[in-house]
Structure formats: C-alpha cells, structure tokens
Design a protein that fits this description.
The protein has about 230 residues and is α+β, with helices and mostly antiparallel strands. The chain folds into two domains: about 5-95, Ribosomal Protein L25, Chain P; about 100-185, Ribosomal protein L25, C-terminal domain (RNA Polymerase Alpha Subunit, Chain A, domain 2, Beta Complex), CATH 2.170.120. The protein is about 25% helix and about 35% strand. Strand 5 (about 70-80) and strand 6 form a beta hairpin. It is flat and about 75 Å long.
Length: about 230
C-alpha cells in the first residue's frame, strides 16, 4: 500500500467555537503521544477520504501546513449521533520501530464450508469482531481472518488463539475468546401446531370448570338436605 499523507493546518479555536469550523466544512482534529498535544484542523472531504483509506490499522503521515511530517495512527473518531457527520478525530503519534497495541477487525471466511452447518444443523455465528495485538506500525494487518471450515459440529469453536497472527506480532486479547461457532436453528412452531396446542388448553380449562361446578352443586345439595333435616 502506498504511503498515505494528510495535510492539516494549525487550529486556534476550541470548545463550542469549533462548531463554526464544522459549518464551513472543516473538522477539528488532535495529534498526541510522543510529545505535546497539537490542535489541528482538516478539510472534511479530505479527512473522510483518508479515514476510509487507512482505517485504524494503517499508519499515515500528518503534515502541518506543509512542513512537519509525523507518523500516526487513527485512535478515535467522534461522529454526530443523528447525521453521522465527523465531529472530531484523534491521531496518535507512533515510533515506527516500536510495537504498539492496536485493535484489529476479525472477518469470517469459508462460512459455507463449515461442516457443522450441513443438513440445516445450524448457522455460523460471530461473537468477537476484533482482537488486540501488539505489533510495529508497519506490521499491523488491516484485518485477521477466521476460517470457519474448522467448525465441524455444535461443540466446536474458533478461538482467538486460532487466528493466524503475523510474524513479529503478538495476540494480547484473551486467547480463549470465542470468535465463531455453529448456532443451532430455532424451533419453529407451525400454525397447525399452535392451533392444536390452543385447543388442548381450552379443553383442559373446560374440564376444570365442569368439575368445579359439579362439586359446588353437590356441596350445595348436601347443605340443603342438612338444613331440611
């Protein structure tokens, strides 16, 4: 992948004043780590394009007004809860020669080849969508693949430790974390079965009501006989 660069400018607005930047198509960003924190701003369209290209795992160089270039990783993205527009982005400076912990997404492959799904026995279900690894910035994979062909039955799980971690990297998440497994199908009750169950329930209720009435009638008759005597 070609080296990614992001051109930024110094920012002098903070807090609520950043709303004026956003209205003009500028997004406030921050760069921190390995030194002082720096407030910056980026054109919204350029930032969208860059974030889509690098995600959270690809290092990129940040340039400040065309002068300074620093390797960073995207660390946090804040979006508007309704419009999903970018509100703020944090970039973490990184030393390209030192390992760093980063969360990497996990994708499933060969789901249709999982033996445990044959004959409608169940479907592949994913429980963990990302794991944390320790690796140098240029050795961080964009994603890790979980091969579902090992899921032979309902008792088999694909665990985090089964992932193919790149050489030089280390899994720091729980190795026993369950990535994927076979979920048995839900039991579906047909309309005919529901009608039959409903009919049985009604019959049971009617029977109980009759017994109660007979008992009350007998009891009442005995009381009357006692009074007459």
């Amino acid at each position: 992948m070609a080296e990614v660069k992001l051109e930024t400018q110094s920012r002098s607005t903070f807090g609520k004043k950043n709303n004026s930047l956003r209205k003009s198509g500028i997004v406030p960003v921050n760069m921190y780590g390995l030194g002082e924190s720096i407030s910056l701003q980026v054109e919204e369209d350029l930032l969208y394009k860059t974030l889509k290209e690098v995600g959270f795992t690809t290092p990129l160089k940040i340039s400040i007004e065309g002068k300074e270039e620093t390797y960073t990783l995207v660390r946090n993205i804040s979006r508007h809860p309704v419009t999903d527009k970018l509100l703020h982005v944090d970039f973490l400076r990184v030393d390209m020669e030192k390992a760093i912990e980063v969360q990497v997404p996990v994708t499933l492959i060969n789901q249709d080849d999982a033996p445990g799904t044959r004959g409608g026995a169940g479907v592949v279900t994913q429980g963990t969508y990302e794991v944390t690894i320790l690796a140098k910035p240029l050795e961080i994979p964009s994603a890790l693949e979980a091969d579902c062909s090992i899921l032979i039955d309902l008792e088999t799980y694909f665990l985090a430790k089964d992932l193919n971690i790149p050489e030089g990297a280390e899994l720091t998440s729980d190795p026993e974390s369950q990535i994927a497994w076979i979920q048995p199908p839900r039991v579906q009750v047909t309309e005919e079965e529901m009608a039959a169950l409903s009919g049985d329930a009604e019959e049971g209720e009617d029977g109980e009501g009759d017994e109660s009435s007979d008992g009350d009638a007998t009891e009442s008759s005995e009381e009357q006989g006692s009074e007459e005597q």
